[in-house]
Structure formats: C-alpha cells, structure tokens
Write a structure and sequence with these properties.
By secondary structure, the chain is of the alpha/beta class. About 40% of the residues lie in helices and about 20% in strands. It contains 13 helices and 13 strands. The protein has helices at about 15-25, 35-40, 45-50, 60-70, 90-100, 115-120, 130-145, 145-160, 170-180, 235-250, 285-290, 305-315, 315-330; strands at about 1-5, 30, 80, 105-110, 160-165, 200-205, 215-220, 230, 260-265, 275-285, 300-305, 335-340, 340. The chain has a six-stranded mixed β-sheet with strand order 8-6-10-9-12-13, with helices on both faces. Strands 2-3-1-4-5 form a five-stranded parallel β-sheet, sandwiched between helices. The protein has a two-stranded antiparallel ribbon with strand order 7-11. About 35% of the residues are buried.
C-alpha cells in the first residue's frame, strides 16, 4: 500500500510523514522528489529547459510507479509518500499505473489555510544553502499557492482531507493513521493490467443530434478517450466494443457496428502498440443520453464535443485517429491506417 500525503508546500507533508512512520508498523518513507533530483543529474540540461517541473517528465511519472513496486518487494509497506501532486492527469497516470500493479493507494490531502501557509513559508528554514537559495525556494513555494487553490476542487473530491491548520505534525499524523486504519482515502480505480505485448483494442464513437462525438475521462490514465477497451482473448472486436460501452456507460448497442478505422499503432516504449479499431456506434437520443451511467472506479466524466474541441482534449495519437474516423464516416468507407497514416 501507498499512503500518499498530498498538499501544497508548507502543509507539513514531510514532518507529518516522519511522525506517521512511528504510527504505521512496517512503514517506509518513499520520497519521489529524489527521483526528480536523480533525473536532473542524468538528463541533459536542455530537457529541463523545455519543462516547468520534473513532474512534467513522463520518465519521472513512470519511475514513481516502478520504484514503488520495487521497494515493496524489499519492505513490507506501507510506503509513506509526501509528494505534492496538483495535476489531475498526472494523478490518473500514476495512481492508475499503481492500480495496474495491484498496489492500493490511500490518498490523503493535508490542507492548511492560506494565511497560515504564507506564515510558514515566510519563516521556513533550510538546512543548507545560502540566503539567495532560501529566498528562491520561498518564492517558488508562494507561486504554487494559486495552482493549489485551482486544484482544490478535484483534490477534495479525490482525497481524504486532514486540516492541518491548527494541528502539530504528530496530531496530523495521528489523524492520517486513523484514516488509513478505517479505509478513508482509498482510491477505487479499475485495475487494468499493463500490457506485456501488442494489444487489440476496440473503441466506439457515439454521437448526439448535433453530430458531436462522446468522449470519456478515465480515472486510471491521463487524457480523454473514446468508450471502448482491450479485446479479450477469443472475443470478436465489434463484440468487445459493444461490451465495453455497456459496461462503461450502461448503453446497449446493436451487434452490427460499422467499422470506421483500423489503425496499427507503432510500439513506443513503455507501450507495445498494436491494432486499434474505431466503430460507429450511431446517434444517441436525448432519452438515452439522460440515462448514461459512469462506473466510479473507471470513468470520471463524459462530454459531447465538436471536432475542434476534441483536438484540444485528446492526446495527439487519439486525435489523429478520431480525425480520420470522422472522415471515414462522412465518406461511408472505412480507412486503413498504419501509425496514423492512411494506406491506399
């Protein structure tokens, strides 16, 4: 298990984490910030000029999961992880990958009133470094108060909140320990196994009466997606699309789905690629749309969007596939793509 202590800078994550080690038998401190420091030493400086934070590195997010899994083969756990995580897409990517490894997460938000945060940051003392470095760290901490405030709505909905405004680190740790014992903060994410080879996946495009396409927001990976999923062994791809739509959205579709796109996705480490099929699921009436369901452990939200809106929401590979699927729908003829490029 991982006990992820979230919160902005000055909320007391590190001090609370050290106190928590005394309260959770077998626990070990796991600080992903060390992975960021390591990447700064190993990657070219130019790479860090391209990003705002080491959390923006896909390598860091992957290493957080891989290192946690490796540590749990050496220690009994839980891993106590004091780490600010304000980007919901990064939360989905990391927590979803941990769920795929069968590593449960207890997400706890240490929240502190802004006035107290500013006081703590102003009086923060560093163990090493010069005054200029200390001032830079304080400025950096203050700059993150606004992103934290922006993230609070989703953080409150996702994590168990412990208000540390008037608590000592020990008192905060005691509340966290009790929350862990009672199961608070558990992230119920669908445990989608990580692929070990090329996969065959079937997606389904559903439309409203304005010809907008339905996208869903998974809890277990970053970015928006089409309804659908991996085709199971011995299962027909179109049948898999129908099954996934029923499981994800509670909508029963006819078995005779029309193929729009067959796309071979090239392997790109750590992914293995494979065949991706997109089917036309037809237009949903207002009555059927009103009955859409979302499984909490798998999907967070759904939205009908225009093609232009989809371009801003989908990762480039999925957007390109959607773009060609919409052209195929207009022409009434399926398209065969290889790495997103039409053949013939």
């Amino acid at each position: 298990m991982i006990v992820w202590l979230n919160g902005t800078f000055g909320a007391g994550k590190t001090t609370t984490a050290h106190e928590l080690l005394d309260l959770l038998p077998g626990s070990t401190l796991y600080d992903p910030e060390l992975l960021g420091s390591g990447l700064r030493l190993m990657l070219p400086a130019k790479r860090f000029e391209e990003i705002d934070d080491y959390q923006d590195l896909p390598a860091w997010r992957r290493m957080v999961v891989d290192t946690a899994a490796a540590l749990l083969t050496e220690v009994p756990g839980p891993l106590v992880t004091p780490m600010t995580l304000l980007c919901q897409e990064y939360r989905d990517e990391i927590f979803g990958a941990l769920a795929a490894r069968r590593i449960p997460v207890r997400h706890v938000l240490l929240h502190t009133e802004e006035t107290i945060l500013r006081e703590r940051i102003a009086h923060r003392e560093e163990t090493s470094g010069d005054a200029e470095t200390h001032a830079s760290i304080r400025r950096w901490s203050l700059e993150h108060l606004t992103p934290y405030a922006d993230a609070l709505p989703w953080l409150r909905g996702d994590a168990h909140v412990v208000d540390t405004t008037r608590l000592t680190p020990r008192q905060a740790a005691e509340q966290v320990a009790e929350a862990v014992r009672t199961g608070a903060g558990a992230c119920d994410i669908v445990q989608t196994p990580e692929p070990t080879a090329e996969t065959l996946a079937a997606g389904v495009l559903l439309f409203d009466d304005q010809d907008r396409v339905l996208l869903v927001d998974p809890t277990y990976k970053a970015g928006w997606e089409f309804p659908g999923g991996v085709v199971e062994r011995g299962e027909a791809p179109a049948q898999a699309g129908v099954r996934e739509v029923a499981e994800e959205l509670g909508i029963e579709l006819p078995r005779a789905l029309r193929l729009l796109v067959l796309d071979w996705e090239a392997p790109k480490p750590p992914g293995f690629g494979g065949l991706r099929l997109l089917y036309d699921g037809g237009t949903l009436t207002g009555d059927r749309i009103s009955k859409l369901l979302l499984p909490d452990a798998e999907l967070r939200d759904w939205r009908f969007v225009t093609e232009a809106e989809a371009e801003k929401m989908l990762p480039p590979v999925r957007w390109n596939r959607l773009r060609w699927a919409l052209r195929a729908r207009e022409r009434g003829c399926p398209l065969h793509l290889e790495a997103g490029v039409p053949l013939g």
